[in-house]
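Per-record layout

source: Branchiibius cervicis
name: Cytochrome bc1 complex Rieske iron-sulfur subunit
length: 353
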Amino acid sequence: MSSDVTHSPNNEHGTELEQASSSEVFTNPGLPPHVHRFGDDDAKAARRSERQVASLFVLSMIATVLFVVFYFAVGDDDLITLPLIGPMKALHFALGVTLAVSLLGIGFGAVHWAKTIMSDEEVVEERHELRSSDEARAGAVDVLAEGAEVSQINRRPLIKYTLGGALGLFAIPLGVQLVGGLGPLPGNDLSTTLWDTKLPNGKPRRLMRDPEGTAIRLSDVSMGSAFHVLPEGIDDTEHPLNQKVKASVLLVKLEESLIRSARQKEWGIGGVVAYSKICTHVGCPVGLYEQQTHHLLCPCHQSTFDMTNDCEVIFGPAKRPLPQLKIAVDDDGYLIATQGFQEPVGPSFWERS
């Protein structure tokens, strides 16, 4: 097989590809022909583009000046009502709009400048060989050898070995600081929560609305509703913040026919299920519930969990499903936790099986 071969004046080595195979000959595509723009042939069009670019830069300058003016002139308590948005702080609106216009003016001006005025002809320049010459490489070795000779490090083994030991041991504090900065090992801290314990009177803990602190009846949970839940008896003065965070739960009611996990049905009641809010990726709060898709979304890194299939991960960096809390109804109709989580809550770690 053969074909005509054309050579681009910008690429003298185009034939290298053509000789890559003895059985095939490849045509050098070269560079596409230059497409002339209005400003390339018409001086008036070029000046018009120049004025447009300058106008965008001037618009950016005006917006920047207004940003400074609004920063000092608009009060922090002044409100403004916007359609489809509602009331918001006038200062935030003014600063956001002026900063956006300032950045857009610079960006649009630069793009318009490049598209209409700057030269757009492609140029190919062959890169020189990156490897140093044999003379330069030999010279570098000679410099190193001369430095070793002048320092007498080869003739002073005591200095050589002690220097190596000092530099090697110097890395230990850096490593200790790096590892120590990761915090303590989790141990069993993620395996135990307040849901594992009962109240002082021996009764199971009720599911309480967060932050209202009111108990939840089964009849209060309507289809598609979601409740942020904490255990009954939690006390900010008695229990540290990490205990409160670990016990955070999201309560949702689903159509029982949509639930595909047998354990999920067994641990819930009437389609009402409760899951840990702590993402199994890095521990962010999973609080975004999509009622139509029945997905839970972590806002930090977009890990997505399927609530109809035991909160399995369907997207994102999380590797494990959210732990489920087994719930029931007490004699008064309130939702209670009959036992704690069976898996550690929160992010994955190397000791977790």
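summary: Residues 43-73 form the longest helix (31 residues). The chain has three domains: 38-116, 139-173, 194-337.
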